[in-house]
């Protein structure tokens, strides 16, 4: 801490102004209107009324979202309005600039401390009375403005770097998707168009009830485990069914084997796992579809064909995740089927492109993580007296 900079209790240099009422002709700010970690406003400045009571705020306030404080939602408005009661308007005293207060709220140390005051597991809310007792360094107004100017300039550059990294990440993904669509939407000589129903069987699993779970036995996978498998990540099995129950199902109904495909089909559909090896497992019915007996199709060719189909569905849903993929819709979907040799060649090309796409994604994800670390490092320096 720089010499001369004093620590002050937040409640001594800032107050919560909770002027509650029903406001008709002012912009409304909800938690969804504030972007996490950036203090950016995502909402509208058009007047909006809501049925419930709200808090009034002005351009003198910093708005702080106390619900799920780990989301780090704070905002310094440039307009008068009203906000959700899950957002507290904080009014700094003349000893504190609101820009300096905003950056202090955004710092990782502050977020962690506030999060530790939370009560309620499902809807954690910060205990703002405890937060008022937090101490923060309060230099002179001139020093605060100097620190804010440094952070503003640095964060503008960081925002540009982050936007470029995110754009490059999108471009890498778009390149693979473009090639994928080109392969599966263009009919080539000798390719035969067929429905998936005519090529194999699409079903789900036999229902397993909660009282059938055991402590040890055959692993039982839900949607989240299938997603992990689809993305090549290791999983920790949490649920099991008995070996006897598994063998009963395997005999009467069948069980996934090498080359079968499991496809998540509710919510964020399109996580696709090609079963490998001979390990025994079973999976939850309904949320995951099971494609089996596709003997004339290379399973990895089918996986890519399904990826292409799912991407098309998501685009038809205007960019949102397609909510459900029923078996009948999948059964009637048509794909162009080349020779076995061509299938293998296509898989080889797509595997290589996918691997390169993942490599690029990893690079850009690391860059984004480094950018976030840089932001927090600068904030730490700002409030520890190093700037």
Fold and architecture overview:
With 387 residues, the chain is an alpha+beta fold. The protein folds into three domains: 6-138, Adenine-n6-DNA-methyltransferase TaqI, Chain A, domain 2 (Alpha-Beta Complex), CATH 3.90.220.20; 140-171 and 342-387; 192-337, DNA methylase specificity domains (Adenine-n6-DNA-methyltransferase TaqI, Chain A, domain 2), CATH 3.90.220. It is built from ten helices and 20 strands. Helix 5 (141-185) crosses helix 8 (299-316) and helix 5 (141-185) runs antiparallel to helix 10. The mean pLDDT is 90.
The biggest sheet amounts to: 4 strands, antiparallel
Q: Averaged pLDDT, please?
A: 90
In CATH's first tier, which class of the largest domain applies?
Alpha Beta
User: Could you state the CATH homologous superfamily of the largest domain?
Assistant: DNA methylase specificity domains
Q: Write down the domain tally.
A: 3
- Number of E strands: 20
Give me the number of helical elements: 10
Q: What is the correct CATH architecture of the largest domain?
A: Alpha-Beta Complex
In the CATH scheme, what's the topology name of the largest domain?
Adenine-n6-DNA-methyltransferase TaqI, Chain A, domain 2
> What is the radius of gyration?
27 Å
Give the structural class.
alpha+beta
Percent helix range: 40-55%
Instruction: Using the alpha-carbon principal axes, give the shape.
Output: elongated
- Provide the succession of SSEs: EHEEEEEEEEHHHEHEEEEHEHEEEEHHEH
């Amino acid at each position: 801490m720089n010499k001369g900079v004093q620590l002050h209790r937040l409640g001594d240099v800032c107050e919560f102004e909770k002027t509650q009422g029903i406001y008709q002709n002012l912009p409304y700010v909800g938690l969804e209107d504030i972007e996490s970690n950036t203090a950016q406003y995502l909402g509208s400045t058009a007047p909006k009324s809501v049925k419930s009571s709200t808090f009034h705020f002005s351009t003198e306030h910093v708005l702080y979202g106390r619900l799920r404080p780990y989301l780090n939602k704070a905002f310094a408005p440039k307009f008068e309005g009203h906000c959700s009661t899950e957002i507290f308007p904080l009014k700094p005293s003349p000893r504190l600039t609101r820009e300096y207060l905003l950056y202090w709220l955004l710092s990782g140390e502050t977020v962690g401390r506030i999060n530790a005051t939370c009560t309620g597991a499902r809807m954690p809310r910060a205990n703002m009375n405890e937060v008022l007792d937090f101490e923060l360094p309060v230099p002179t107004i001139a020093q605060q403005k100097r620190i804010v100017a440094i952070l503003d300039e640095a964060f503008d550059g960081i925002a540009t770097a982050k936007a470029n990294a995110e754009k490059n990440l999108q471009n890498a993904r778009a390149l693979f998707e473009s090639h994928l669509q080109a392969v599966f939407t263009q009919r080539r000589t000798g390719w035969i168009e067929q429905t998936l129903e005519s090529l194999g069987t699409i079903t789900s699993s036999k229902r397993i009830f909660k009282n059938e779970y055991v402590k040890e036995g055959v692993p039982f996978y839900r949607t989240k485990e299938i997603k992990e498998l689809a993305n090549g990540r290791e999983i920790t099995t949490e649920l099991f069914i008995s070996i006897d129950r598994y063998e009963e199902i395997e005999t009467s109904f069948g069980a996934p084997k090498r080359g079968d495909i499991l496809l998540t089909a509710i919510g964020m559909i399109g996580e696709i796992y090609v079963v490998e090896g001979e390990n025994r497992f079973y999976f939850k019915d309904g949320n995951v579809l099971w494609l089996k007996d596709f003997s004339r199709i290379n399973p990895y060719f089918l996986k890519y064909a399904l990826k292409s189909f799912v991407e098309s569905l998501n685009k038809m849903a205007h960019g949102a995740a397609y909510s459900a993929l029923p078996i009948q819709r999948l059964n009637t979907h048509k794909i162009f089927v080349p020779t076995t040799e061509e299938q293998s060649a296509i898989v080889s090309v797509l595997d290589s492109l996918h691997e390169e796409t993942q490599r690029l994604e990893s690079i850009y994800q690391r860059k984004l993580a480094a950018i976030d670390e840089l932001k927090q490092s600068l904030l730490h320096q700002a409030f520890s007296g190093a700037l």
